[in-house]
Amino acid sequence: MRRTTTQKLQQVITNNLLHITKAEIYNKTTQETETIPNDNFLESFDFLCEAIFSQCIGWYYEKNIKTKDYEIECCRRDGSVDVIITAYFRKSDGVNEEDIDEMLLKIEEEE
Q1: Distance (Å, whole) CA 32 – CA 35
Q2: pLDDT tens, 60-95?
Q3: Residue burial 64-99, b: 16+ Cβ < 10 Å; e: rest
Q4: Residues 6+ apart with CB under 8 A from 48
Q5: Each residue's pLDDT tens digit, 11-35
């Protein structure tokens, strides 16, 4: 998986490079997964983007070779958090995968 940021993820969504197909919350303790309505995920994500601590969230992404969708998640690698949020995105028609990767990829020097 590759690292990205809240701001970079917001850019690919607002520039219509990717559109959401599904979002889920997985609870590590109960081992249960709940589907989040796409509108609720996007609304909550927009709210998160406005928050001052949005830079603190570690997002990761990868392209699923079988489905060709992008899987974007946070909190899996954080042992102190009990939930994992995963969102599945499909690239928009006519969008180049290299453009998505260029916009999403977090360069370590940015920190």
Answers
A1: 10
A2: 999 999 998 999 999 887 778 899 999 999 999 999
A3: eeeeebbbbbbbbeeeeeeebbbbbbebeeebeeee
A4: 6, 54, 57
A5: 999 999 999 999 999 999 999 999 9
How far is CA 50 from each of CA 18, 45, 55, 63, 87, rounded to the nearest angstrom?
Answer: 20, 9, 10, 27, 19
What residues pair up with 24 in beta bridges, in sequence order?
A: 35, 86
Q: How many Cα neighbours within 13 Å face the side chain of 70?
A: 25
b/e 20-35 (16+ beta carbons within 10 angstroms → b) = bebbeebeeeeeeeee
State both tokens at 51.
């928050």
- H or E stretch covering 65: none
Structure tokens at 86: 């995963």
